[in-house]
Amino acid sequence: MSSEEAVTEASAAKSVSDLTEGSEVVLADTEDPGGAQFYRTHQAQVARAVPHVPIADHVRLILSEPKNEVIVNFPVRMDDGRFKLFTGYRIQHNNILGPYKGGIRYHHDVTLEEVKALASVMSYKCALLEVPFGGAKGGIRLSPAQHSKRELESITRRFVHDLGNNIGPEYDIPAPDVGTNSQIMVWMMDTYMNTHNQIDKNAQKRIVTGKSLASGGSRGREKATGQGVVYCIQEWADERGVRLDGCNYILQGFGNVGSHAAQIMSRLGAVLVGVQDHTGSIYNPQGIYPRKLIDHVNKEGGIRGYAGAEEINNDDFWSIESDICIPAALELQITEEVAKKLTAKLVVEAANGPTTLKGEEVLKKRGIEVIPDVMANAGGVVVSYFEWIQNKRSESWQLEEVDSRLLFMMKRSYHEMRAFAREHGVDNRTAAFAVALNRLNAVYTERGVFP
Ligand SMILES: NC(=O)C1=CN([C@@H]2O[C@H](COP(=O)(O)OP(=O)(O)OC[C@H]3O[C@@H](n4cnc5c(N)ncnc54)[C@H](O)[C@@H]3O)[C@@H](O)[C@H]2O)C=CC1
Ligand SMILES: O=C(O)CCC(=O)C(=O)O
């Protein structure tokens, strides 16, 4: 760098610091090792499916990057009176099958590339499950635990305000993901309604899904992702004559998805022998009671210190003797090293993108089967679709109806994926992406190319 350039850089930095003095700036994409790797991993996984289905060139190109990338920077007043600048993303990958759809993540590692990967995953998930939605995802780089309820509400409302018409009940419909919940969805809905003046307020409820029951949510949405994970495990067990009663499993992530999956697995007699979350890892070969662990987590904010299990090193968690492994936390967790340690016969990807490319290679070599994210965790978006329909029609379905419709859709796609895998001699992930790609390609080619 010449001395002139150095002076210019220094004065530019100075003027930025003048602008932000006294406030905290949470910069968006300063470092992004994980997000970029996740995006490349996801694209490589999709690319493996391409030789197995006839994809038109223009369709491949369209799907290779998101259609829209919305980034908003907005200041919010913190409880101490100072302003903090946040960056929010809403990435809209594809909407050929219907409105953009996907969760909102609040996590300190959120980056543009991570949200791009997650948005693209949603397009294939919806296509595989025949949910008439496209794929999107959003997020803000923040640690929810470090903010008061009031701060979280202000951040959420400001984010929705600044997204403006980039979301809408027939255009792009957010939902919960890591670090967000029904309360955040209800704040989003309320802010949208207050900033978009329409007479039919009831119809506007479907701007988000994953709301509380009182504010227009669906029965069964909160447990839906975990329920769908277990439906997949049941199909896998039936196919192979495995009894779930008495089988051992380990679980990474004990939030919405993990804790619900664990409660449902318990009802089937499966034994939870190890859990890991952001606070540590615990082990009990006699079984950990999900309900008691939930009570502990609600009080303490994590699994650490739970009296009904022994605390172990995070590194030892993956080698716990088990039949099934359920990653239900973040992406890129099942690395080469982790895959070598696993004793399970099945990995069920409750999380999005939990397995690295190298990790997958090892799993394959070791004969460990994978039910991929786009299939395993699709229960959430399926019941979000049911919530959206119920809001649109002013209906309220009973839980039995929600569960039986969910089971039907999960089973249908699971067996489509398995049939493709058998017919083409490919793994479940490649089959799942191939079925989804086929569907997207068919719609694009039938509709033709706009000149
Ligand atoms: N909430 C939903 O409906 C859906 C969620 N998913 C996916 O499921 C996964 C979990 O999501 P939620 O349960 O909603 O999130 P959550 O915020 O409710 O729970 C996340 C869990 O992951 C744990 N965790 C975070 N960092 C960790 C780390 N470094 N090591 C170990 N554990 C860690 C947390 O302690 C917590 O137990 C994510 O990949 C999400 O994208 C997929 C489909 C739908
Ligand atoms: O429920 C939804 O709309 C989206 C859920 C989600 O973000 C996901 O499946 O990863």
- The CATH topology of the domain at 223-376 turns out to be Rossmann fold
The CATH superfamily of the domain at 223-376 is identified as NAD(P)-binding Rossmann-like Domain
What's the CATH class of the domain at 223-376, please? Answer: Alpha Beta
Order of helices and strands: HEHHEEEHEHEHHHEHEEHEHEHEHEHHHH
Q: What is the average per-residue confidence, as pLDDT, rounded to a whole number?
A: 93
Strand runs, count: 13
Distance between the termini: 46 Å
Structural class: alpha/beta
Q: Which small compounds were modeled alongside the protein?
A: 1,4-dihydronicotinamide adenine dinucleotide, 2-oxoglutaric acid
> Strand arrangement, largest sheet?
10-9-8-7-11-12-13
Helicity, as a percent range: 40-55%
CATH architecture of the domain at 223-376: 3-Layer(aba) Sandwich
Note the beta-strand portion. Answer: 15-25%
Unreliable segments of 5+ consecutive residues:
1-19
Query: What is the count of helical runs?
Result: 17
Largest sheet geometry: 7 strands, mixed
